[in-house]
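re: the backbone from monday

yeah here it is again, tokenized this time
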């Protein structure tokens, strides 16, 4: 399955349209939570895909997992992140007005996670996909090197949203 411009547009535009503030705070809160489920759920599912492919080691598993990681990031992680940011911004306005430190720290961590994902993880995932589809019956050594890098970077990109999730739920007084 090739990723088309139409798929990318849908993954970006649909969550934006669904997030129109005219539907009210409850709707935006629902979409924010739904975005968190999509986002965090795909992080967990992606780690499973990669771990199973790494353990199996066969070309079929490696190719399927590499492709699945790229596709599920497009259809789950991207819309989830958009729903989190847009709807979080809509429902978080009252907290921004009072300068809630947990929200400021949460947003900074989430944005930093996004930078790690866009700058490091996405190019690495594209390279994993290319290497996985190298002709032949053997998984290239480069794929094993790349997947180790992917797990290291993925650990950072996963830890930051987990901390953000804890801060969003607990809303601690940080200072």
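seq for it, each position gets an aa:
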């Amino acid at each position: 399955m090739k990723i088309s411009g139409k798929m990318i547009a849908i993954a970006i535009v649909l969550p934006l349209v669904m997030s129109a503030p005219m539907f009210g705070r409850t709707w935006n809160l629902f979409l924010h939570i739904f975005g968190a489920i999509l986002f965090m759920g795909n992080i967990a599912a992606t780690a499973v895909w990669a771990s199973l492919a790494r353990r199996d080691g066969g070309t079929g598993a490696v190719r399927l997992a590499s492709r699945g990681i790229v596709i599920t990031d497009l259809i789950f992680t991207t819309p989830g992140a958009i729903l989190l940011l847009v709807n979080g911004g809509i429902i978080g306005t009252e907290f921004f007005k009072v300068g809630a430190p947990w929200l400021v720290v949460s947003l900074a961590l989430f944005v930093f996670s996004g930078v790690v994902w866009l700058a490091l993880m996405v190019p690495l995932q594209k390279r994993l996909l290319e290497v996985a589809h190298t002709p032949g019956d053997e998984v290239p050594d480069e794929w094993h090197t790349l997947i180790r890098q992917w797990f290291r970077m993925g650990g950072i990109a996963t830890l930051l949203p987990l901390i953000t999730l804890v801060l969003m739920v607990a809303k601690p007084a940080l200072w």
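The first helix runs from residue 5 to 18. The chain has a mean pLDDT of 87.
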